Amino acid sequence: MKSPTFSSPSVNGSDRLTEITLYLTIPESYRQEPLITQLVSRYQLQVNILAATLGTNGGQGQFKLTLIGQSEAINDALAYLEELQVSTVLDQDLDGW
């Protein structure tokens, strides 16, 4: 599944912050990896965890996150998650939680 790409009109160049909400499904193979931390350190994003579910005996994890940062950094982060085969779905104001 191809990750969504987000673009925002720029005001005053590239210093405008963009905010998106999305759902991630992280495979069990990445359960012990700091994927959300990587979004902060690699892409200088602010991450707010709105909801999360994890299996008690392993399994995949599901997160609802808000990402705040430069549009380019958000797109780079989404591409990174796609490379890892982490499912990402943009929230279209349909709160399934």
From TrEMBL:
<dbReference type="Pfam" id="PF09383">
    <property type="entry name" value="NIL"/>
</dbReference>
<protein>
    <submittedName>
        <fullName>NIL domain-containing protein</fullName>
    </submittedName>
</protein>
<feature type="domain" description="NIL">
    <location>
        <begin position="18"/>
        <end position="90"/>
    </location>
</feature>
<dbReference type="InterPro" id="IPR045865">
    <property type="entry name" value="ACT-like_dom_sf"/>
</dbReference>
<dbReference type="InterPro" id="IPR018449">
    <property type="entry name" value="NIL_domain"/>
</dbReference>
